[in-house]
Amino acid sequence: MITRLFTAHPSSVDETYLEHSGFAFRFAGWLALAAMAAVVHAVFPWMFEKTASQIIAKLHNRTVHRSDPGLKSA
């Protein structure tokens, strides 16, 4: 029962627990960078004009195309 709590969702996206954890941690890191770029942009509008939105678009693309093995390591 407990094991299933940790493996059901990763299995539903054809990943192991560790693969899914790695994906999620990398995703969180990119989100943190996007957030920092947005904060700097809020204060200095000429800086990082498209950085946050480009990161979000890239993450969206990776998430939507997760079943493509070529994008898992990208």
In brief, what are we looking at here?
This protein is an all-alpha fold. The protein has four helices and no strands. Keywords: Membrane, Transmembrane, Transmembrane helix.
Structural write-up:
This is Capsule biosynthesis protein. The chain crosses the membrane at residues 27-48. Pfam families: DUF6356. With 74 residues, the chain is mainly alpha-helical. The chain has a domain at 27-65. It contains four helices and no strands. Helix 2 (17-43) runs antiparallel to helix 3.
Write down the Rg.
15 Å
Number of helices: 4
- Residue windows where pLDDT falls under 50 for at least 5 positions: none
Arithmetic mean pLDDT: 90
Distance between the termini: 33 Å
SSE succession:
HHHH
Residues in β-strands, percent: under 5%
* Number of extended strands: 0
Helix content: over 70%
Q: Outline, from the CA principal axes? A: elongated
Q: Which sheet architecture does the biggest sheet show?
A: none
Overall structural class, as computed from helix and strand content, comes to mainly alpha
Summary tags:
mainly alpha; 74 residues
Task: Please render the helix and strand layout as text.
Blueprint lengths: L1 H11 L4 H27 L7 H14 L4 H4 L2
